[in-house]
Amino acid sequence: MEELKDDELQELLGRGSISRNNKLSEKEADDLLSYQNLFRALETEPLPGLPFSFASNVKRKLQERLNRKSDIRFNVMAVTIFMLSLVLGYGLLQLISQTTADLVLNIIFKFKWILFGVICLFFCLLEIDQRLIKREY
Amino acid sequence: MFDENEIVNRILKNDLRAFELLVNQYEKLVFFVIHRLVQDRQNKEDICQEVFIKIHHSLPSFRFQSKLSTWIARIAYLTAVNYVKSTQRKSPYEYPENIDKYYFTDDNPERVLIKKNTAVYVNYLIEQMPHQYKTVLTLYHLNEFSLTEIKEITGIPEGTVKSYLFRARKLLKEKLEKDLKEENTWKS
Question: Which of A73, A79, B22, B152 lies at a C-alpha separation of 20 to 30 Å from B95?
């Protein structure tokens, strides 16, 4: 029975349909007061909240992630274009002069590690540059 | 005036200023959910940031079938629940399997110190409750969602939400009354 009263009081308070005019026993009036205090406390915002700069911090973090994503896309595209242009160049050279094409291929094979190193260095510098340079938002 | 349709459309066109406005509008909603469900004080701001980044990422799939606030609250709730699950071993509190059997344990020195400010004390008591109670109390009283919206956010049936809400409030009321009585006995 008491459980029901509790539920009823909560329900009435939740709906805001309780007033001083309601005829309540002493126990019910005490319960009502307790619930009113509790409801007030439950509606009090917890402190401390988020910092004032929270929205701009989120925006900055998001911008960084979006930039990172676009940098990765750019790097993958750069590698693909570089490889394709090498293949295309070699193909064109084959059409123009097969001897020169073979000569270029031999040179490439001869200095393959140096060429590989130069390419890796270029992309490493590109990556470092993207990471270190701070953009202005 | 905050027009959710316009803001969402601007964000979808990569307008970060519009996204900042959305964050400003809903940061309290997200913070209340994260604050109540996540114990780890240090990471609360980081988790709130992650929630908003998830929101930006998932916004293209938002179809306006529910209110934007409900959709955001659901993302915040699920993020908090996942975080709590991943750090469950670190939780300082233990709950019975059937949360209807939950009750507050005895005082400790920290609790005695903060009893003087009711709102702070209530927050302290809520912190110790099972996460279902914390969730419904926060969504209903702080974020002012209806029972139907809480059902949408948490996936908990409406009747259960209502019963959690009543039981959680009753537990808090009884605890506050008991403390008040003890304090009066101690004074006299």
Answer: B152
